[in-house]
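Teaching note: in complex prediction, the entire set of molecules is handled at once rather than each chain in isolation. The prompt given to students was simply: 'Predict the structure of this complex.' The entities are:
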Amino acid sequence: MIVAPKIRGFICTTAHPVGCRENVRRQMEYVKAKPETQCGKKALVIGASTGYGLASRITAAFSGRAATIGVIFDKPASGIRTASAGWYNTAAFEEFAAKEGLYAKTINGDAFSQTVKEQVTELIQRDLGQVDLVIYSLAAPRRTMADGTVYSSVLKTAGKNYTDKTIDLKDNSVHPVTISPATPEEIDATVKVMGGGDWLDWIRTLSDAGVLASGAVTTAYSYIGPELTHPIYRDGSIGRAKQDLYDTARKITREFPGVKGYIGVNKALVTQSSAAIPIVPLYISILYKIMKELGLHEGCIEQMYRLYHDKLPAENPLLRLDDWEMREEVQTRVAAAWKEIETDTVAQYADIDGYWLDFYQMFGFRVPGVDYEADVEVGVSIPSLQ
Ligand code: NAD
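The expected output is the structure of the full assembly:
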């Protein structure tokens, strides 16, 4: 089948198996060309198929030489539908891991569920004994609780209406958008989905089963960003959830002796999750332009390599990977561009092409070296999911 991108809103409903494989290969080659990391030999990665979670798994395996178990929530191909990008990424990851003699197994299911937690626990008991690194990189729109209640996260302010510029990704036009405040119930639901509750449940389940090694490290990811994104991010409904995540990191360190909880405060990047946040994609495309001009731009893999190679071990639970993004020289220029940017000056102030390139590449399109005219097999299987 010849696979072409089909964009719907801020997602692409198709994915290219060969392009996704190439993305994983390039990330693997990036870390292999650098000094090895020492951050754990047996890693569990929850949310392992795309974005920061995938880059974390690649770093743990191909830089840290770790055995990895990945938890993903992805769809295989069916009929003329391609699989999701995360499915193809995971298939490629396992293929490369096998070539290097690295243990890699994957569980495809809802990470919020107790069933998946127990499946993972049993797999660790059977194959690895214990894990010494647990990476929690979920970004989800909703969570189903054990009693069947479904909570949905919202991307709203946590106070009053807030109006600022945003980019309409359908036609790259810049226009004002007003974000309404979340109700207390919506904030509570967002904290349930994106806060630390499920992370804590994972750590408790693993610890109770005795599969967390003494000295284990666990990480989850957050974003802080500059003032212009605060109303929608840091001070918004998602920010409340991230505050809960910080509290959870401290709680884990306090309540589980021998386990240390960390938060990677990562850079703003194009991923399937960040594309859905109002205002943020415009900020990201301005940031890309400036950080590329200053030679400071990084993608998920550069960030995750820096986290596990340079930032750990650490005393402080906050690992600032946004240090380059937050440099004064970067943020002064972002603020100046933000004031000026309008629809007809998008190309002047923002790296809109870079934004779109990352967007397409997330789904395996526009990846150099891939022949998009070629017929490809879309029914790829993930070896460990037999
Ligand atoms: P992403 O959408 O690429 O990754 C999220 C992962 O979670 C995917 O692999 C997805 O399949 C998985 N997932 C979602 N629901 C699941 C479920 N129920 N069960 C199992 N897996 C599930 O997003 P990302 O941007 O890499 O986000 C990962 C973390 O990084 C989030 O905590 C996010 O807030 C944080 N972060 C992102 C940015 C950014 O700019 N993208 C910046 C800083 C921090």
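Point out the following to students. The domain at 7-385 is CATH 3.40.50.720 (Rossmann fold). Residues 237-255 form the longest helix (19 residues).
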